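Is this the right way to post structure tokens for a design question? Let me know if I should format differently. Anyway, here goes:
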């Protein structure tokens, strides 16, 4: 272990020496070589060696959920070459409360699991020696840390990257909510002109009037601005403003996501501190006819919710997981994603920036729909302040991403007991104060004033699952469109119910509350009815499917919320996934025979459904073509097909480019 640290220290010295004149900061990943102790450990033999990202809630069965306290420890070699410099520890995410110690001295505490945080440790390090870093982590439920209620498991651990940042004394500060310290604030955006200010946070103890060079590089690498600005008086609290104008800008749009680079360089004697952020210019609005518009162009928004975990690693997901998640959402045809109950790592939003995918980022103010004992809102100063602080962090850390178009302030919070509406109003006011270029949104399954606070509201609907019929969604849409009291609302809709791969049923019936039998066929039927009605209703600014993937939920009977279109392994796609792919993906054709996992069927008289985006397909049984009727634009059905014994059904699309087949056995039970 010490040998590893010595090699790492030597590499750090070489890096610092080679880059001393080129740049003032070096970022060193310290994910490796940690030891994990739980709170009841009595000796070093109880330690587990781990690398980050890590959580102690990785469980292949989605069970055994542990809410506990543990300590992560690691030695950090601080070389003599770092003497005279400033050192910072940046944590990408720790769930949920982190207390950080260095050499036995308290560094700081952070409360909230979905945002990054940073501490300066310059005055606590011992140069030329091993420094013992200890992070006490707790995911124990607390009434002063959001969320206090959650359907998704709160997996404890240091589940995102940890970095040691080494800088000169005078720098562009990383201490403003663990950001780059650079914020591009657009004030006016059009195809003729983009103007605004760069808000810059400096920490310059040795410089009275620092000079900053601002260089702006366009999407194709052309330079649109290069000027030096002398700062008369650094504003540590509010930041310093550097104005800019770009004539004839290339705007960021979903179809053409054009990005600009802002290079800010603090110039000193013999060194420079440079920070580069990328952003795009776009105008976000909601039209009078309830349509989301980007740069004045209406967007037919088709969104899907993204949870934060998967079976193999729980919440300790890395960039490759995020790449897969986004690629799968795009393959389905979604043009928007929602970070459920808290932001993902910044890597996801960088990808969305490049791909032109719109993003809704939630703050973790939510309530589990399953527990009657949970309290989602405590009207205490500590709870309220934590919510405000987490919102500040979320906005600051994701501010420069043009793909992020709305801040989610609440998710299905309950109004019984304490009135939560005044607090949501305060959150809404704060969100607009922090960022007046984006919209606010809430997700609601309640009536009343809670729906009239945020700029946008998303109505969570589940008629036909526990009560009513799936077809009632059409009645609900009609009533909503004709409701004068709700006419001023800018509403979208979200929906999604559970379906387990491998659970089958002969007859699709409404679910019974608390049942453990959740057949995929019922989930598919629900999505078919909803998707068809909502697609032609045209009254919502956005349609959101919840969720893309199943996720761990210890409160569920199986330990997993199975409402995803893909299983918890992130590799088995349910029938409903292909329904949306056929409806939404205009770039790639879809052909899919449904109910393929319902292999053993009692009745010999069956109907066979096919999703096809290329018109009427061809369905064959033992060389015979079966007649198909059109159910909707992408769904086709063979009615009253007599099937006996082992049957192979094969389908081809209208252009004979795609094929699909299933094998079932009928009359065997």
């Amino acid at each position: 272990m010490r040998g590893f640290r010595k090699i790492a220290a030597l590499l750090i010295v070489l890096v610092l020496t080679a880059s001393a004149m080129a740049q003032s900061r070096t970022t060193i990943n310290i994910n490796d070589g940690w030891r994990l102790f739980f709170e009841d450990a009595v000796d070093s033999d109880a330690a587990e060696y781990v690398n980050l990202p890590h959580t102690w809630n990785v469980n292949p069965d989605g069970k055994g959920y542990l809410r506990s306290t543990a300590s992560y420890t690691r030695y950090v070699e601080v070389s003599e070459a770092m003497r005279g410099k400033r050192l910072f520890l940046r944590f990408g995410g720790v769930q949920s409360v982190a207390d950080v110690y260095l050499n036995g001295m308290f560094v700081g505490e952070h409360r909230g699991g979905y945002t990054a945080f940073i501490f300066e440790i310059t005055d606590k390090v011992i140069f030329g020696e091993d420094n013992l870093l200890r992070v006490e982590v707790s995911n124990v439920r607390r009434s002063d840390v959001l969320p206090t209620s959650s359907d998704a498991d709160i997996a404890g651990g240091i589940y995102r990257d940890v970095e040691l940042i080494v800088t000169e004394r005078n720098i562009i500060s990383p201490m403003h909510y663990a950001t780059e310290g650079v914020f591009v604030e657009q004030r006016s955006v059009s195809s003729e002109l983009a103007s605004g200010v760069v808000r810059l946070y400096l920490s310059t103890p040795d410089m009275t009037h620092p000079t900053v060079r601002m260089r702006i590089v366009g999407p194709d690498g052309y330079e649109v601005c290069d000027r030096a600005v002398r700062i008369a008086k650094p504003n540590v609290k509010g930041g310093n403003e550097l104005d800019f104008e770009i004539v004839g800008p290339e705007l960021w749009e979903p179809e053409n996501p054009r990005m600009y680079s802002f290079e800010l360089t603090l110039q000193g004697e013999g060194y420079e501190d440079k920070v580069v952020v990328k952003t795009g210019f776009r105008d976000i609005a909601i039209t009078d006819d309830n349509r989301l518009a980007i740069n004045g162009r209406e967007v037919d928004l088709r969104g899907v919710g993204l949870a934060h975990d998967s079976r193999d690693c729980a919440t300790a997901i890395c960039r490759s997981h995020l790449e897969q998640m986004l690629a799968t959402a795009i393959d389905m045809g979604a043009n928007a994603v929602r970070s459920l109950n808290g932001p993902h790592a910044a890597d996801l939003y960088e990808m969305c920036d490049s791909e032109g995918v719109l993003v809704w980022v939630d703050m973790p103010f939510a309530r589990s729909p399953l527990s009657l004992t949970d309290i989602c809102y405590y009207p205490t100063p500590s709870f309220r302040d934590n919510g405000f602080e987490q919102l500040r962090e979320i906005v600051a850390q994701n501010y420069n991403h043009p793909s992020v178009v709305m801040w989610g302030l609440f998710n299905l919070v309950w109004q019984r007991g304490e009135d939560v509406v005044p607090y949501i109003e305060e959150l809404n006011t704060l969100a607009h104060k922090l960022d007046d270029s984006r919209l606010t949104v809430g997700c609601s399954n309640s009536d009343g004033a809670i729906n009239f606070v945020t700029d946008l509201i998303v109505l969570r609907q589940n008629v036909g699952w526990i009560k009513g019929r799936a077809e009632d969604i059409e009645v609900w849409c009609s009533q909503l469109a004709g409701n004068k009291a709700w006419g001023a609302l800018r509403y979208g809709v979200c929906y999604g119910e559970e379906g387990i791969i491998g659970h089958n049923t002969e007859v699709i019936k409404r679910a019974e509350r608390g049942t453990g039998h959740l057949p995929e066929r019922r989930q598919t039927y629900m999505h078919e009815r909803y998707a068809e009605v909502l697609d032609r209703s045209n009254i919502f600014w956005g349609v959101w499917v919840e969720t893309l993937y199943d996720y761990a939920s210890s409160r569920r009977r199986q330990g997993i919320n199975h409402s995803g279109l893909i299983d918890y392994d992130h590799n088995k796609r349910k029938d409903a996934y292909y329904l949306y792919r056929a409806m939404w993906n205009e770039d790639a054709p879809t052909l899919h025979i449904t109910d393929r996992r319902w292999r053993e069927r009692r009745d010999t008289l069956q109907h066979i459904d096919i999703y096809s985006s290329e018109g009427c397909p061809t369905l064959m049984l033992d060389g015979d073509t079966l007649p198909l009727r059109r159910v909707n634009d992408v769904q086709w059905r063979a009615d009253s097909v007599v099937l006996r014994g082992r049957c192979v059904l094969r389908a081809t699309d209208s252009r004979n480019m795609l094929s699909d087949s299933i094998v079932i056995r009928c009359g065997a039970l």
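Format looks fine. Someone answered above. Worth noting: Confidence is low (pLDDT under 50) at residues 1-22. The first strand starts at residue 26 and ends at 29.
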